TrEMBL record:
The gene is AUGUSTUS-3.0.2_03878. It comes from Tribolium castaneum. It holds the Pfam family ECH_1. It catalyses: (3E,5Z,8Z,11Z,14Z)-eicosapentaenoyl-CoA = (2E,4E,8Z,11Z,14Z)-eicosapentaenoyl-CoA; (3E,5Z)-octadienoyl-CoA = (2E,4E)-octadienoyl-CoA. Signal peptide: none annotated. Pathway: Lipid metabolism; fatty acid beta-oxidation. One of its GO terms (biological process) is fatty acid beta-oxidation. Belongs to the enoyl-CoA hydratase/isomerase family. The keyword Magnesium does not apply. GO terms for molecular function: delta(3,5)-delta(2,4)-dienoyl-CoA isomerase activity. This is Delta(3,5)-Delta(2,4)-dienoyl-CoA isomerase, mitochondrial. Keywords: Acetylation, Fatty acid metabolism, Isomerase, Lipid metabolism, Peroxisome. GO terms for cellular component: mitochondrion; peroxisome. It is found in: Peroxisome. Isomerization of 3-trans,5-cis-dienoyl-CoA to 2-trans,4-trans-dienoyl-CoA.
Length: 311
């Protein structure tokens, strides 16, 4: 086994270092991103190689989530899921707040469509198609194999909670607050909060309180309940810190990181044994990847700045 690792190390690690041109590849990555991805309501940048930064970008509307934004979110994370230049994603909001949630002005455009239909079954069909379309957009974050780090500042309301609940990790500023707003507008949250939040926060009682009362949860409580991992002084230090965490993740084997996310998501919704069976089947293939050899040799030789091929 050791001889096999040594042989494969010679064939995999050295060529990668000899052919490595980080600066050039980084520029190419940015160029590829800029001409392939353009969204009306999102800004996508590459602050560091393999790290993509997605910003909700309707600052004048407090990043209220209109139909275009819902569709942009789904399309963006589907695209990044298959982009070999992307290994980690930071999600934040441009402007004064992270998001005010649902765009009510945009939702008013739905009224004429419903008014045209007299039958409840036909009205229901329109609403069902809209709800499931928005559900798929939010679930695109969870289905994306790349870790998603949400960076929240000030307000995160309604649909914003749905959005961050589908991310891998959450961070916020000390003046942030979170609100499951839907009951205040006469509806139950329907695109992910009620399904994901109980599995993020350890207290079922607290989740129900938040969802039944629509009260605001401040940053300190969000940290104490496990909704966020860390609270930062302000937005600038948060973005810098979260991108720093993303950079660390981006240096790891993409095979290992993406496999870990797939297994965590699968295991959350299955029994322990089903999760064990799933990762056994996954790793019987992935342990044959060159990344395993590369990482093993790097650890054994105390090698720093290991380079992994794109995936």
């Amino acid at each position: 086994m050791l001889s096999l690792i040594a042989k494969r190390a010679t064939n995999t690690i050295l060529p990668q270092f000899n052919n490595c041109s980080g600066g050039t590849n980084f520029v190419k990555s940015i160029a590829k991103m800029s001409h392939q991805a353009s969204y009306e309501t999102l800004s996508v940048t590459v602050p560091s190689e393999f790290v993509y930064h997605v910003e909700l970008n309707r600052p004048d509307q407090l990043n209220a989530m209109n139909k275009t934004m819902w569709l942009d979110i789904g399309q963006c994370f589907e695209n990044l899921n298959t982009d070999e230049n992307c290994r980690v994603i930071v999600l934040s909001g441009a402007g004064k707040i992270f998001t005010a949630g649902l765009d009510f002005q945009d939702m008013l455009t739905l009224a004429p469509q419903l008014a045209e239909q007299e039958d409840v079954a036909r009205k229901s069909k329109i609403l069902y198609q809209l709800i499931t379309t928005y559900q798929k957009s939010i679930s695109a974050l969870e289905l994306c194999k790349k870790p998603i780090l949400a960076a929240i500042h000030l307000a995160c309301v309604g649909g914003g909670v749905d959005l961050i609940a589908a991310a891998d990790m959450r961070y916020c500023t000390k003046d942030s607050w979170f609100q499951v707003k839907e009951v205040d507008i006469g509806m139950a949250a329907d695109v992910g909060t009620l399904q994901r939040l109980p599995k993020i926060i350890g207290s079922d009682s607290l989740v129900r309180e938040l969802c039944y009362t629509a009260r605001k949860m401040p940053a300190a409580e969000a940290l104490g309940s496990g909704l966020v991992s860390r609270v930062f002084e302000d937005k600038a230090s948060m973005i810098e810190g979260v991108i720093g965490i993303a950079k660390e993740i981006s240096k790891k084997s993409p095979v290992a990181v993406q496999g870990t996310k797939v297994s965590l998501v699968y295991s959350r919704d299955h029994t322990v044994q089903e999760g064990l069976d799933h990762i056994a089947l996954w790793n019987q293939l992935m342990l044959q990847s060159e990344d395993f050899t590369t990482a093993t040799v790097a650890q054994a030789t105390k090698q720093k700045d290991t380079v992994f091929a794109k995936l």
